[in-house]
Amino acid sequence: SRDDDTELFLKSCRSSGLLRALLKDAAAGLLTKRMSLTDANGLLRRGSMFVLSTAQARELLGDRPGGVLLDVGAGDGNVTARLAPLFDSVLASESREWLG
Questions:
Q1: What pLDDT is attached to residue 20?
Q2: Beta strands of the chain (E only): which ranges?
Q3: pLDDT tens digit sequence for 54-79
Q4: Are the beta carbons of 44 and 53 closer than 8 angstroms?
Q5: What DSSP character marks residue 69?
Q6: CA separation for the pair 95, 97 (Å, rounded)
Q7: d(Cα 50, Cα 59) in Å, to the nearest integer?
Q8: Residue 5, H or E segment
Q9: DSSP state of 70
Q10: How far apart are CA 85 and CA 89, in angstroms?
Q11: Of 54, 71, 72, which Cα lies nearest the Cα of 63?
Q12: CA distances from 38 to 5, 8, 14 (A)
């Protein structure tokens, strides 16, 4: 079910505005001549991931499972940040310096 964090993420996806979205699309088109689409999207801060909210993860994993959260290919870190409160420590890696 959608909680407040999920609704906020969905709202942020819709509220960027048409002009801004068109400009980012055009910029991505130019950037992909020199880099992958994934890299271009990361540089432009497009396509931020949202898997589940902290509350949804807590419901799935239990109140606080503890242990180590390992996120390989963490991207912009949004998913890691939402899960981090449930773990004792967090290790995240991202090979693209502007994402991590």
A1: 85
A2: 68-72, 89-93
A3: 999 999 988 878 899 999 988 888 89
A4: no
A5: E
A6: 6
A7: 16
A8: helix 4-14
A9: E
A10: 9
A11: 54
A12: 25, 24, 20
Contact between residue 69 and residue 89 where contact means Cβ atoms under 8 Å apart: yes
Q: Is the pLDDT of residue 21 over 70?
A: yes
Residue 29 φ then ψ, to 5°: -60, -40
Q: Quote the CA–CA distance of 57 and 64 in Å, as a whole number.
A: 10
Angle (deg, nearest 10), helices 4-14 and 54-61: 140
Determine contact, residues 88/68, Cβ cutoff 8 Å: yes
Identify the DSSP state of 84. Answer: G
- pTM higher than 0.85: no
Q: What is the tens place of the pLDDT at every residue in 27-56?
A: 999 999 998 887 888 788 887 788 899 999
Exposed, middle or buried by CB within 10 Å (0-12, 13-18, 19+), for 78?
Answer: middle
> Looking at this protein, which amino acid is placed at residue 15?
S
Helix (H) or strand (E) holding 79: helix 78-83
d(CA 2, CA 47): 19
